[in-house]
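Record 1 of the preview.
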Amino acid sequence: MKLIRRLYDWVLRWADTSYGMPALFLLAFAESSFFPIPPDVLLMALALGKPRASYRFAAIASVGSILGGALGYAIGLGFWDVLGDFFYSYVPMFSEQGFIEVQRLFETYDFWVVFTAGFTPIPYKIITIGAGVFHINFAMFMVASLLSRSLRFFLISGLVFHFGETVRIFIEKYFNYLTFAVMILGIGGFVFVSHFT
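->
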């Protein structure tokens, strides 16, 4: 946990430099396949520092994350036999048992697994690599990633733009609850539409 905390503090320091935007892109890219700290923390810090650029920061985070997701897919599709042991040993949140569960979920909910992981605190990197390992349709994977990651980052930037420091404190405290509540509403709407159309 001390290592994670040091990484968290290191990420936040980029907000006070002229390299904040490139760092946001690289962080979003890396987090989609191997880095443990989500880009949300740097996104919020940058948006608070320059509120008028909030949506530009969201776009940068979205593009970086989606491209990073494509890299994760490629790792799973073409290099998992070589890199699997490394990920299980050195990348937080990866386990063989977890991958068995991911495979089971993909067999039933493919699109929604990617969308949920992209939007909620579920580790997106496990799903991006798993999508490649289990040969999930790449176009569907990219659409789900585009929708979920953009929704997540633009929502955060929009809230910071309109409510400032107050919303940063609120998001950091209740982010998990908020995202799961939105997901429940989204899935409920999907079930309703599917049932009555």
